[in-house]
Amino acid sequence: MNFKHFMPTEVYFGKHVLSTNRKLLKTFGQRAMIVTGKSSAKKCGALDDLSSALSGVDIEFIIFDEVEENPSLETIEKGSSIGKDFGADFVIGVGGGSPMDAAKAMAVFIKNPEITAENIFDGRVLGHIPMLAIPTTSGTGSEVTQYSIVTSNKEKTKKGLGQIVFPSIAFVDSRYTECLPYDVTVSTAIDAFTHLVEGYLNTNSSLMSEMYGEKGFELFKGCFKKLIDKNLDGEFRENVMLASTLGGIQIALAGTSLPHGMGYPLTYYKGLPHGIANGILTIGYLKSFKNKSRISRALKLLGLSDISELEDIFKHLFTININITDEEIFAYAEAFMDQKDKLKNHTEPVTMQDIIDIYTVSLAK
Ligand code: NAP
Ligand code: ZN
Question: I need a surface site. Which of 54, 172, 199, 225 has the fewest CB within 10 A?
Fold first, then answer.
């Protein structure tokens, strides 16, 4: 047997983990920049908890609260410049994947003053100042991944920053997700689920990454039922948060594959939330496998007998209504075929026609 297991993020999971572990914040310096979205970090209580924790250990801080969904390089440059002027020793991303990913990118930009939106993708390996993460959605798992997904308006796409930025610490408290509206709860949960699926059906999958996936599928068995029943109680919030963090660890170890790579243009051009963009492609992706033995194992853990039962669950949870032309599908498929890392992660050979077919069956009205 062969595997590499690398998970450098210290994870504190449970209620009130931030306040009970606030002394840890001292390890990272005297000045912190908090990075959030426009309002939810305040509404869900995470920002108050963090402000009290930082004040309680005499750390000065500023708040950058301008991160939009699917964070742009323009916003990242703006936040980085504020962080540099402030002399931030470390950055704390509070929110969904967007503020956490933006905070990771800012940690790179602040450490490397010569880096701009123009040269960030030049292929240099860059360091970063320490970055901490506090998720307020149960979806991306960004609190435990090295990835920062940004929007390049110049290239008209979303893409990975191309740098490794693991959060030093993740404070994961499901209380912060209690004010998530139902639709965002669904789309972010579907994102977490697709991480589990794509990490599990992956050429990089190993004994260690599979353990996270299999526990995640077991948790989703109950979570899907509660999502359909709209019974979003404390147990649901905690279980889906755990499944999301496990999914994050799994993709940190194995990576994502077809649905994630194919979903980016559906978000950029059609405005689909990230989780739904992946979710809508997942059934077609699963059906496209020639060898379905691993899919059967995953379905068993989910308490399902075949892919069509999963399809029924998805139909209960979300529908999409977008207009898309054959030319657009061709262009998306062509762009996807350039994402060699995503293709490499898929366990079977795949042609451009296969990708066109998955888009077509998934997006047919
Ligand atoms: P998001 O874009 O961070 O946030 C979506 C919406 O949810 C925003 O309107 C946000 O409001 C709101 N929200 C967040 N927490 C809330 C709460 N507790 N209560 C009420 N509303 C809340 O959504 P996301 O799905 O978590 O993140 C998606 C991004 O993560 C995408 O860019 C995706 O590509 C990326 N991603 C990254 C990784 C990774 O490993 N790094 C993995 C998967 C996805 P505010 O704007 O007010 O905060
Ligand atoms: Zn995702």
Answer: 225
